[in-house]
Amino acid sequence: MKKIVVLILLALTSCIKDNCVDYLIENQTEKDLNLVLFEEGTEWRNTEIKPNASFTELSICDSGGWRISFSGVDSIQIKVNNLVLKTYYPDSPGKNIYNVDDRDSWLLVVNRKHYQKFVFEITEEDLK
Fold first, then answer.
1. Distance set, CA 71 to CA 14, 57, 67, 79, 85 (Å)
2. 13 beta partners
3. Tens-place pLDDT, residues 68-119
4. Which residues contact 77 (CB under 8 A, 6 or more apart)?
5. How far apart are CA 35 and CA 83, in angstroms?
6. 13 Cα distance to chain centroid
7. 3-state secondary structure of 21
8. Are 127 and 27 in contact (CB under 8 A)?
9. What is the pLDDT of residues 69-79, one digit of tens each?
């Protein structure tokens, strides 16, 4: 009987915990921004991000490891008043929304045992 209790306790305590991750895109400007994603040269998604607000690009909990990916996305534009102020491509140098593993591009703002939060900040400087 003792062995059964120990086996049950061992099974319950050795379960794989869910790992949660959030990827946010933060508008740190005073302007309404539109984040426009293109696939094969065609607009695929257009998301408005209000001034000093954020947009959750991915939020997921699972027992596996997750990370954001823009595979299949040709380019990402940032528009203000329908004018393109910035275009990111997968191979653009410097701060780049595609570089999800680059901590200068995607900041790790929360890092706990089973939760991570990454933020890509869009500033006035990025739009120059």
1. 35, 14, 12, 21, 22
2. none
3. 788 889 999 999 999 999 999 999 999 999 998 899 999 999 999 889 999 9
4. 34, 35, 36, 38, 84, 86, 87, 88
5. 11
6. 31
7. strand
8. no
9. 888 899 999 99
| Residue 35: count of CB within 10 angstroms of its CB | 22
The distance of Cα 110 from the centroid of its chain, to the nearest Å, equals 13
Is residue 44 left, alpha or beta, with left meaning phi > 0 and alpha meaning psi from -120 to 50?
alpha
Using H for helix, E for strand and C for coil, what is the string for 36-59?
Answer: EEEECCEEEEEEEECCCEEEEEEE
Q: Record the tokens describing residue 104, joined without a space.
A: 């200068």
Instruction: Give the Cα separation of 20 and 60 in Å (integer).
Output: 6
